[in-house]
Amino acid sequence: MALLNSSDYRVAAKRRLPKGLFEYIDRGTEAELAMDDIRRSLDAIKFRPSVLTGHSSSDMTVSLFDRTYPAPLIIAPTALAGLVSHDGETKLARIAGRLGIPFCVSTQSVTAIDDIRKGAPDAELWLQLYVWRNRDLTWGLLDRARNSGVSTLVITADTPLSPKRDYNQRNGFSVPFVPSVRGICDIASRPGWLCSVMLRYLMTTGMPTYAHYPAEFKTAITRAAIAEDVKIESAISWDDIAEIQKRWTGRIIIKGVLSVDDAIKARALGIDGIVVSAHGGRNFDVAEAPADVLPDIVKAVGDQMIVMADSGIRRGSDALKYLALGADAVMIGRLPLYGLAAGGEQGAQDILTMIIDEMQSNLVFAGAKDIDAFRRAGIA
């Protein structure tokens, strides 16, 4: 069956992946209200087109920081992309390199950033950072990123705790994998994934886990000793951001901003950019939707720092809606994972190309010759 839209890819991913892994990627938190709110906020936005504009294509080139990109997209950091497809993070990095856009590697990736660099030498890599309780381990990860040629650090600020996701417990899903009857039956029900992903790891690098965590975390005997060290710091503050600024010479972006006050604080600290994000509805179930707060944030700081947005993008038109509200670029997370699951590296490239094509066609229908003209036209 031809995969023609994001829903098709999602269905294909659901068929391919074990239930526990698919729901970890696909679902939200608690009552999953935030996911509905994000969808509602985007669906409510309409464009007012201009007709007879005399052009059949639009320029989507965008400048971010000191570079120019062919499209205003960044592949967002997503945990465990390497479980969706073998060596999934490296595949995403190669795709990003071919498309000419950045790929943001997750702290919780299955492949370490230095190994991703070896597999994708031409990609522009960013690193998403969770600050661990053990700061020395955190600083060590920054060193690895710097040595791997990472240009930009994306600090996730909206995850002080592990979110409440009941379905993970019901599905017996955890990392590192803890064998259970439910979990083993789930994996066995997906023999294609079992053979092409899990068994490949077991025959080469061993049981997959978070690659940036210390080696001690990979074995059950020593995991308890290191578990506290690599817990996400629940008391992270602006002082921590200032400390990171002293240790990181590249660009710094703060991800998870939903208030004007926090955006202004970031600007005052000299942060290079922010991502207006609700974490795809996966963290705080009663948080405001990014589309509802983005215009005020752009008005407050948009002329002094790069403002990006994410959460809930399913079509190219969704990405354009965030751009119309003032975002300089958008991050896309779940869709590349659906693509990886459905068709490996080619599948992920196809779904990202599909989104870019949809953005292009919607710009033409809107009568905008480029992104700036589209923003000036505004929304209906």
UniProtKB/TrEMBL annotation:
Coiled coil: none annotated. Keywords: Flavoprotein, FMN, Oxidoreductase. The keyword rRNA processing does not apply. GO terms for molecular function: oxidoreductase activity. Its EC number is 1.-.-.-. Its cofactor is FMN. Residues 1-380 form the FMN hydroxy acid dehydrogenase domain. It holds the Pfam family FMN_dh. It is an enzyme of class 1 (oxidoreductase). Belongs to the FMN-dependent alpha-hydroxy acid dehydrogenase family. This is Alpha-hydroxy acid oxidase. It comes from Thalassospira aquimaris.
